[in-house]
């Protein structure tokens, strides 16, 4: 993975830790590696997490591993039962639906505010993210497309110039990213997603608030319906 993409991934995972206290840089490194593996599906629901193996791999005691697992548990990515090995949390389709409904409503507000508040230069800045998404689709690189998609959405939310709204979106956390990765990894989804993002940027450029809001809601809920049809959860 290219350095800029790796940094983007680190930034997104770090954002999930807002409001946390304590812990060490090593516990964050372990958290980051496990969180990314869960989001990208390399650790699927129900997979056990071996604390002893992690401690050996990172040449550390169990303490940083426990700290990392507690952060993962707070994010809803793992379950740490008493006297049993931790495991990746299961997912119910009802949970996926509810989170996507919240996300669709929040991003509809983002789109409304972007049209109202973003400058022409601000909106042009989204074109650089769009170009990355185009290259990723041409390369068939799901991982790169996913993380650049996260970057696009973060940049878009910043253009709303509403800090509290950005906090609400951030509160959906890594669990939301986990679902988004599943959706984008399904056959045909990259092309649909790219087309939707092109329509969204065009609506911003034309200052068409009704179209921007409609495209955003469609873009988000299309992701949910793809997961629902796949039967993955």
Could you name the key traits of this structure?
233 residues, mainly alpha, Arc Repressor Mutant, subunit A, Four Helix Bundle (Hemerythrin (Met), subunit A), 2 domains, 73% helix
If you had to describe this structure to a student in words, what would you say it looks like?
By secondary structure, this protein is mainly α. The protein folds into two domains: 3-88, Orthogonal Bundle (Arc Repressor Mutant, subunit A); 93-230, Four Helix Bundle (Hemerythrin (Met), subunit A), CATH 1.20.120. The protein has helices spanning 3-15, 25-39, 51-57, 62-74, 93-117, 120-139, 142-159, 163-171, 173-184, 189-205, 209-230; strands spanning 78-79, 87-88. The protein has a two-stranded antiparallel ribbon. The longest helix is centred in the middle third of the chain and has 25 residues, at 93-117.
What is the secondary structure topology, with strand pairs?
Layout: H1 3-15, H2 25-39, H3 51-57, H4 62-74, E1 78-79, E2 87-88, H5 93-117, H6 120-139, H7 142-159, H8 163-171, H9 173-184, H10 189-205, H11 209-230
